[in-house]
Amino acid sequence: MATITKENIGLLHEKLIVKLEKTDYLPSFEKALKDYSKKANIPGFRKGMVPAGLIKKMYGPSLFTDEVLRSVDRELISYLQHDKLDIFAQPLPLETDFRQLDVNNPADYTFHFEVGMKPEFQLPDLEKIKVTDYKVTVTDEMINNEIARLQNRYGNMKDQDTVNTDENVLNVLFREVNDNGLEIENGIAKDNSLLVKYFKESFRGNFMGKVTNDFVIVQLDKAFDEKELDFILSDLGLDKNDPAAAQKHFKIQIVKIGLLEKKELNEEFFNQLYPGKEVKVEADFRNKIKEEIEAYWKSQARSQIHDQIYHQLTDHTAITFPESFLKKWLKTQNNQGDKEQAPKSEEQVEQEFPSFLNQLKWTLVSDKIVQDNGIQVQPDEIRGFAKQQLLGYMGNMGGSAEDQPWVNDYIERMMKDRKYVEDAYNRIQAQKIFEWAETKVKPVEKEISAEEFTKMAEEHQHHHH
User: Fold this and answer.
1) Helix axis angle, 418-438 relative to 405-415, nearest 10°?
2) Which of 149, 253, 334, 408 would bridge 215 by S-S if both were Cys, CB 3.0 to 4.6 A apart?
3) How many H-runs (helices) and E-runs (strands) does the chain carry?
4) Pairing relation of β-strands 13-20 and 444-448?
């Protein structure tokens, strides 16, 4: 009869010793051998009439190993469930144990496994942690910029014969030239579309009065200010950090001249953007735009609260890990899950370990929140998630398509995609964890400009990478 004993070998690090008697696996091995002999198709023998000795010689070693390992797995699973051992990952076997197996000399075997135990820990009191609720101030400039963007987006482009204003849109062809203005063979050539006002103010006059097929020769850094220059260099495939790139010369030939007529601010336009919303005058329109900008920044601020909660929980929850075991386990996990690939090197493990440990810590923290608060994700919630995601992809078409039969067909198809369901489940569960945490924290409001908020978010993102 099989026995399992436990031996401590380090902090939260245990060794499980599985002793297997031959009576634990031999009957099932002999049965497997008989079953195989009945099914085996071997040239020169009728099906089911292959001699047992030949079957044992040809397939015995692999069947023997399979039955022994199956018996070990069965005993391990039973032991872990009965003793309710809460472990990380799977038990790590000592490879040398499996070299002792010999189909011709069945014996009692001993196998050794290492396991890492999950630790007990306490979460910090969320009511006492410091969280800031950033309130982005919506300015008239922000509202004006958004209105101008919408006017341009829904405006009409009219062809023009001549360049006569900074607002002209130029379809142009950039061709690389030398200092004498002669085209370089195999040089850079690129189409682009630019407003005249994207050029330096001192340079714009060079375009006035020009018509289709006219051109100008430019040195890039003399034609564009820094912000626009970075965009142009990138579009031309040049390195913006290379000073020589900005001094290259290009022939810019006009292919087409246009002028964007902005959409007029009237009730027709307001109704186009907000049908049925009773937006009749410009004041109503501005209020609607302001509401949308406020809603956007409120959602960004909420994401910031979630980020602060995440860091407070991971930074202030003290958890002890069986690091020795986890490093051994991590070493066995190759990058592509390819069994043929060599284990990770010690250097790879040390490099990856801090990030791995941080992710593992969040997993433990979130699992504890889920268990302690009975947070659940129902199948209907996953269906709803799939539906909203689909309608989000479709944009304005979503409203009319919502009740179409094919939408439900799509959802049911996604519910059969295991990877999609797991991903959706994890995302919904994470959202529920933060929603629960939001009910516990007491954020302090802080007024902030959009520029300050964006800079803060970018610096935080940069720090993470």
Assistant:
1) 90
2) 253
3) 15, 11
4) unpaired
Q: Which residue, among 437, 393, 392, has the nearest Cα to 302 in the 3D structure?
A: 437
CB 109, CB 34: distance < 8 Å: no
Q: 97 Cβ partners below 8 Å, 6+ apart?
A: 109, 110, 111, 112
Look-up of token digits 């069947």: 63
Task: Compute φ and ψ for 258, nearest 5 degrees.
Answer: -135, 165
Does the pLDDT at position 173 exceed 80?
yes
Judged by DSSP in three states, 210 sits in coil
Instruction: Report all structural domains of the chain as residue ranges with CATH numbers, in order of start.
Output: 3-117 (3.30.70.1050), 156-261 (3.10.50.40), 282-464 (1.10.3120)
Name, in order, each residue with C-beta under 8 angstroms of 130's C-beta and a sequence gap of 6 or more: 312, 444
Nearby residues of 264 by Cβ (< 8 Å), 6 or more positions away: none
Q: Which two tokens mark 456?
A: 């803060």
- Banded pLDDT at 401 (limits 50, 70, 90): low
Q: Which residues are 168's β-sheet partners?
A: 259
Task: List the structure tokens of 12.
Answer: 């939260």
Residues 434, 439, 441, 447: what is their CA dihedral angle, to the nearest 10 degrees? 90
- The two beta strands, 132-136 and 444-448, are parallel
Q: Confidence class of residue 456 from pLDDT cuts 50, 70 and 90?
A: very high
Alpha-carbon separation of residue 190 from 175, 193, 241, 253 (angstroms) = 7, 10, 20, 11
DSSP code at position 340: T
C-alpha distances (whole Å) from 204 to each of 176, 208, 218, 222, 368 are 20, 7, 12, 11, 63
Spatial distance between the Cα atoms of 9 and 391, rounded to a whole number of angstroms: 54
Cα separation of the two ends of the chain: 54
Q: Where are the beta strands (DSSP E) in 129-282?
A: 132-136, 156-159, 168-177, 189-195, 215-219, 249-261
Secondary structure of residue 108 in the 3-state scheme: coil
Q: Among residues 199, 258, 204, which one has the least CA distance to residue 224?
A: 199
Distance CA(80)–CA(117), nearest Å, equals: 11
Q: With residue 415 as reference, give the H or E element that holds it.
A: helix 405-415
Residue 278 zone, left/alpha/beta (φ > 0; ψ -120 to 50; rest)? left
In the numeric block, the tokens 């949308």 are attached to 292
| Pure H helices in 274-378 | 282-315, 323-331, 346-373
pLDDT in tens, 309-339: 999 999 999 999 999 999 999 998 865 445 5
pLDDT over 90 at 13, yes or no: yes
